[in-house]
Amino acid sequence: MKNLLYFVTLLLFSCGTIPTNKSLVSNFGYTQGTTYNIRYMSPNGEDLKNDINRVLQQVDYSLSTYKTESTISKINRNESTKTDSLFVRVFEAAVRIAEETNGSFDPTIAPIVNYWGFGFEQPQNTDKELHANLMKTVGYEKLQLKENLLFKTNPNTQLDFNAIAQGFTVDLIGEELQKKGINDYMIEVGGELKCKGYNADNMLWRIGIDKPTENLQENRFQAIIEVHDMAVASSGNYRKFKVDDQDGSKYAHTIHPKTGKPIQTDLLSVTILSKSCMEADAYATACMVMGVEKSLKFLKKHPDLDALLIYTGPQGQWLNYQTEGFATISIYQER
Questions:
Q1: Taking the domains of the chain in order of start, what are their residue ranges?
Q2: 227: Cβ contacts below 8 Å, ≥ 6 apart
Q3: Partner of 174 at 20 to 30 A CA spacing, among 120, 125, 155, 164?
Q4: pLDDT tens digit sequence for 158-207
Q5: Which CATH class is domain 2-333?
């Protein structure tokens, strides 16, 4: 789901150089149905793209629903209950966040996402009986991990980590770079990113957050922030939606796990900052499901998270809410 849940573009600024024993290395490519952009200050200019690609392959073989022989695909087809270390890390985080958000984030929503045409299978006809039957398979409570084996109470329950896997991939690449002694980097996968240390100008990494508009504008940024040792993830519904063939109405890509229907909300976009990109990724999705009021209450209970919420007011005007921490790192905001 996450490869279709990438809307707020987060871009890197500043690519200059300063005298140092480190050199800026840039790696670009494709993964998980999207792109990645990684820049890091490397001793002697060593290029670690092969190491990065190895990490990306490990994630694919564990978590990709597009690979038929991945761990998650075999579990979804009930061909295996055996997990692996990457799967376990993501599954445990997903269940914990599902519990924290009262099910607003749920990794078992895949069949309903496919039903509405946003998933990894072809969309089904919008048949009410089919929808009701699919909803019986949804619920993270239907899964249990025992000694690295995953069991289902409903054999038709399916997992989809796309709303968390890209953030996890960012974290995993960060771990790999730090093993190699690299502590100055910007890692972006599908719009989710993590920054640590400083860029080639010996300045904090600057990240632009797009306005929640259907089309990119020349003056595109709602905010620009300076990020240090922090992950950033965003979610929104303003660029990814389906259009009904019958009446032309639009419905959003974010599906409410409790109703199995696209959400209707005044919340246009959510940007979450956290130490973990995996967590920021999942929390951003959960906030889109929760809406403005519930998200505000949730954020007040989680002071370890910083956030920017953009939403529409009663007269259709744009309003925003930002935590104190977000305001501290913001160097530009459009009013």
A1: 2-333
A2: 195, 204, 205, 206, 207, 273, 329
A3: 120
A4: 999 988 999 999 999 999 999 999 999 999 999 999 999 999 999 999 99
A5: alpha beta
